[in-house]
Amino acid sequence: MIPFTSIATPQARDQDDLFLPIPESVRRSDISLAIPRDIQPTSKQTMLVPGYAAEKVTELFWGRLQDRRGVQVLSPGEAVRVSSADEELSKMGAEKAAPAVAKRLKADAALLGVVSVYQERVGSRLGADPPATVGFEAKVVAADGQVLWVGGYYERQRPMGEDLLGFFRGWGFLTAAELAEYGVDAVLKDFPFGVGEGK
Prior knowledge:
The protein contains six helices and six strands; from the N terminus they run E-E-E-H-H-H-H-E-E-E-H-H.
């Protein structure tokens, strides 16, 4: 398993600060908002994915995959050791280096991923503005370079009025870490290798 990375460029923060009362008979997906052409749009706030986000998602995948029967997962530390020992590999991106790392570890494939969004909630479990947002993608790349599986997750927690089941999942607004944990579990439900709990 190759440690996850995170996007280093600033990401636009969701701008849901506009409050528009929604009639009970209309779903959120039925509403659109247009900005007149002669008005300049407001500048979007940007934020960076925190450095610890990739480490957190890596730990979550590593912990869950260790419990899967029928698959042996090598630690992220072993992948780092192999790639840092070779100057050429350490200069490549994780996806380009994945087949070579898998070969050197005598593994069939390598799991790698990127965290694209990791925004902590501002507020408490009872009320958050903005709520937590987490997004990542995971891939399994074979030693020959073929992509065997891709799984992705993105969720910006919604208020109880918009997403009752999601809200009750954690009985309130979740932290980014809790949302990431839920996301890893959701992605691994479709993971085609080994047998996880509940299968």
